């Protein structure tokens, strides 16, 4: 019966002359079992020769074409269509689950922030339980447009004679910053100061430090939209009470820093009567040189470190831009004003000269002075397992940029990018840079991004060596939320680094969420924001520096 079916198949394929005598099982036997006459059982002499001579009469290409024409294609195509449809359905389900996980992560982050504010408010109320509460509202709630526009700067403090908040607008910023420290530690080296200085922010107009400002006036008369005037939004900081604590952060292993640091600490303590706070490493170095520096304070554990923003009035950095980045990373919430002295290489964020530290710090402590609000990005990694376990990682704040690259993988990075609920693009290249405007002169600039004034409210979207000639960098508004996801069909994994450190691996299915953080870094200006920015790109990058064309006089 099987031989008959094979003969019918051969006739349909145009091989009617072939009459195979062996089944596939017989042909799979060992060659040694075949007798000399060509038969597995020693019979049917000359069958193999007959098969060979008959098959040679047909063209091999015709046989292949006939075989392919006979193969049933319809079931295979149907199976492929079902697999594609099933894959698309699973992708839709995965996206829906991803949105649910991201929504829960955002809600958890918001709840944690409110819990932190509640705990700080509770601690403050316990310390002031014997004081009389003022019935009036607090200035940060009663002021008008100016205070609303500065509401993002949570380092804003109330006036010295107002200690309580009206509570009508939630927890005011001075409640977060003005709380006193918990029970003091016995060791004087780890004793934190009890109260924080207050200050007020105001607009400057045309470089005048008079606190006055112009408003943007938009006219809709006769259906036309016109802007009558524009304001010079240079922000000024004015102390309302004397600063009490200065936090000094230095670049490690620098001979210049070791030479100037003891002098600055001694001058602040003896001439300005200001408490000095340093990192534990630096305090040990100072005490190793001279026991005079026993008055220098530091922190003992991570709990004290988390409360730095409630005790520090001013941050002084001695180093380069990397030292400023490190100083910003120590504050997971609001950041005090930062005075950056240039002891590094380029110095885009370090306008002050270390040789003139007495004059510079004297003017800063006296006030008022101009500041630049440098926005930070809040980044959070959401693992693929979060769809089921609902586990999210701690948010990371970056001042320059977050970089997603291919790491040690030889494959191109494959990333899906979304802006709010809109699809942006798929990145195929070496990676992607999501940068603040302060970081526009760093890695983003090297990758072809534009240089942007640090007070421009924007997020930079810069690809790294994209495998596309049309992939140009973007500048997006500050209020958007970016999501970068490694798709499931990515050939390799990706790596994310935050301000050049805290490197994290992103596996297929993992996502990185980036948005503007509510806590900017206020850096003191030598002159003002624009002058300092232009000076930095002229001196640091020699921007547009070329030999001028010669003048040969007017033509004859």
TrEMBL record:
Its EC number is 2.7.1.23. GO terms for biological process: NAD+ metabolic process; NADP+ biosynthetic process. GO terms for molecular function: ATP binding; NAD+ kinase activity. Residues 20-56 are annotated as: Disordered. Belongs to the NAD kinase family. This is NAD(+) kinase. It comes from the Eukaryota. InterPro entries: ATP-NAD_kinase_N, ATP-NAD_kinase_PpnK-typ_C, NAD/diacylglycerol_kinase_sf, NADK. It catalyses: NAD(+) + ATP = ADP + NADP(+) + H(+). The lineage of its organism: Eukaryota, Viridiplantae, Streptophyta, Embryophyta, Tracheophyta. Residues 30-44 have a biased composition (Polar residues).
């Amino acid at each position: 019966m099987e031989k008959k079916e094979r003969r019918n198949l051969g006739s349909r394929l145009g091989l009617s002359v072939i009459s195979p005598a062996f089944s596939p099982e017989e042909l799979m036997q060992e060659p040694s079992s075949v007798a000399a006459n060509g038969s597995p059982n020693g019979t049917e002499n000359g069958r193999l020769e007959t098969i060979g001579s008959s098959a040679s009469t047909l063209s091999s290409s015709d046989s292949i074409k006939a075989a392919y024409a006979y193969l049933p294609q319809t079931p295979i195509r149907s199976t492929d269509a079902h697999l594609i449809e099933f894959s698309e359905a699973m992708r839709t389900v995965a996206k829906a689950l991803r949105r649910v996980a991201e929504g829960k992560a955002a809600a958890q982050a918001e709840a944690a922030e409110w819990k932190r504010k509640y705990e700080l408010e509770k601690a403050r109320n316990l310390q002031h339980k014997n004081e009389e509460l003022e019935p009036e509202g607090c200035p940060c709630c009663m002021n008008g447009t100016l205070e609303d526009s500065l509401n993002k700067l949570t380092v804003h403090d109330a006036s010295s004679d107002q200690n309580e908040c009206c509570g009508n607008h939630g927890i005011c910023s001075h409640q977060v910053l003005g709380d006193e420290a918990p029970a003091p530690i016995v060791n004087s080296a780890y004793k934190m100061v009890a109260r924080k200085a207050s200050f007020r922010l105001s607009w400057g107009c045309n470089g005048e430090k008079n606190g006055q400002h112009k408003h943007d006036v938009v006219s809709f008369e006769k259906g036309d939209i016109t802007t009558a005037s524009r304001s010079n939004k240079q922000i000024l900081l004015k102390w309302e009470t004397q600063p009490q604590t200065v936090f000094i952060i230095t670049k490690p292993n620098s001979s210049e820093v070791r030479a100037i640091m003891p002098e600055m600490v001694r001058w602040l303590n003896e001439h300005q009567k200001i408490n000095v706070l340093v990192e534990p490493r630096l305090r040990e170095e100072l005490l190793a040189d001279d026991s005079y520096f026993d008055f220098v304070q530091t922190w003992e554990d991570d709990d004290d470190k988390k409360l730095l923003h409630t005790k520090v009035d001013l941050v002084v950095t001695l180093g380069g831009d990397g030292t400023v980045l490190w100083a910003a990373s120590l504050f997971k919430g609001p950041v005090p004003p930062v005075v950056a002295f240039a002891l590094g290489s380029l110095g885009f964020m370090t306008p002050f000269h270390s040789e003139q530290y007495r004059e510079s710090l004297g003017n800063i402590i006296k006030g008022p002075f101009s500041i630049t609000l440098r926005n930070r990005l809040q980044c959070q990694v959401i693992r693929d397992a979060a769809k089921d376990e609902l586990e999210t990682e701690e948010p990371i704040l970056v001042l320059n940029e977050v970089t997603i690259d291919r790491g040690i993988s030889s494959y191109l990075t494959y990333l899906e990018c979304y802006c709010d609920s809109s699809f942006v693009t798929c990145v195929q290249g070496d990676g992607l840079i999501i940068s603040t405007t302060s970081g526009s002169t760093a890695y983003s600039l090297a990758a072809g991004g534009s240089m942007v004034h640090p007070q421009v409210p924007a997020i930079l979207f810069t690809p790294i060596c994209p495998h596309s000639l049309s992939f140009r960098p973007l500048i997006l508004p500050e209020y958007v939320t970016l999501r970068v996801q490694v798709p499931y069909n990515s050939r390799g994994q990706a790596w994310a680094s935050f301000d050049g450190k805290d490197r994290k691996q992103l596996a297929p299915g993992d996502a990185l969420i980036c948005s503007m953080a509510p806590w900017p870094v206020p850096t003191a200006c030598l002159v003002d924001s624009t002058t300092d920015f232009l000076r930095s790109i002229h001196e640091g990058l020699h921007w547009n520096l070329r030999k001028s064309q010669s003048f040969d006089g007017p033509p004859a």
